[in-house]
Amino acid sequence: MKKLIFLYLLLIVALTSCTEGMEELNHDPEGVSSATAGSFMNTAILEGVNTGLSRSHRLNNELMQVTVSLTEGNTVFHRYVLFPSESDYMWSNYYLSLTNIEDMIQKAKAMSQPNYLAIGLTLKAWLFANLTDIYGDIPYSQALKGYPNYVVNPTFDKQEDVYKDLIAKLDTANALYDVTKTLTLGQDALFGADKSTVGTLRWKKFTNSLRLRLLMRGEAKSTAFQAQLKNMLSSPDKYPLMQSADESAALKFTQVTPLLNPFTSTRDYDFNGANAVSEFFIKTLSTWSDPRLDIWATKASGKYTGIPSGYTIAEGPAMNAISSSKLNKNLKTSLILGTILQYAEVEFLLAEAAFKGYTTDSPKDHYEKGISASMKYWGATQPTDFLIRLGVAYNGTLQQIMTQKYIALFFNDMQQWFEYKRTGYPVLPVGKGVENNGKMPMRLKYPLSTQSLNRANYDKAVAQMGADDINTKTWWTK
User: Fold this and answer.
1) What angle in degrees, to the nearest 10, is found between the helix axes of 343-355 and 363-377?
2) pTM
């Protein structure tokens, strides 16, 4: 019996323990009490970024036709085949990272450290938003309560309620910042706020930019979100946003442990040999003669050649025989791959907000700033005529805004997929080998461990959502 209890607790560790291991089973109050709020911050950021990069490479890029797998087996996501095992990785890793963040928040409260509390609330909103955007309804209000509360079977909160609370927490965080002070409890790997108050202000801008992302994601479903969006955008002094590519929330890898690009030790074949860059991605950027393509992809026989997504199993040998473009191997050691939220995305959010009438700004102006910000972030030299080229010159459509945003979200965890689910853009070709009735998956199913070990609450969540199915639409999905 003791062995069964031990195994049970081990399996639910993702919702109830600390990332240092099985802290719920072997908790060290003295060790935790000696830590500071700053002790948890960089670890949580690094883990969250690495989790997002892993699944961006494996899952998002395939679903969203950045890459196309050249192998069969369990890597046929470009055909909209999602095996149940795909659900485990992000669920367990994001929740594990969140336990560090929760410890950070509690320490910040106990030590009366408002800046650390604001940062903790921001990081919590970032990862919980990713979780609910992937799965829909999730354990939220009762999650992360393994010690000392021993809540081992958390209830699932509705996605709409999760969003409302995350947006409220980000509003609280914005008000907490004291941008005249630096962080004093350790290094800040994201913005360097331990060295300069400029970094503290950048944290505040990240908080509000993230809040803008979440408000825009739910605006079509909530009049309350629409009102908050208008209020936020009409009060730039109260809610400052990112204003340059240098202010992007992106973990800069140093290639010195622990700040290593997670793909550094990955075999070349696993990174860019087992897949090709997709035909859609190549054609889209090639049509514009986009200089970012040189940074992201290789040429094959002197030219860019993509593989069509969703090819049939029978076509596999023919696809493998094509000399195709691959992801640039330099991305494996890129120092700037750790994107959380770039300034370019903020400009595209503002372009959409202006397009929909939330501000009187020029959608064209923000759209063009978004393109230029992405170019600058990636170190691409933007041609002087780029913004007036056919297909790039602003034509007053949401589709064009979202297509450029899709390009700018390259390797930004699962954000391309989220935005596609919300808007239906960019319009992706559907290959004749695509399964799931040709429909893009709308979510991942809940992990098998959650289904079996938290069955009662799982059943309630399924009844609440309608079905635990990849086609079940979540609250904000179009």
Assistant:
1) 170
2) 0.93
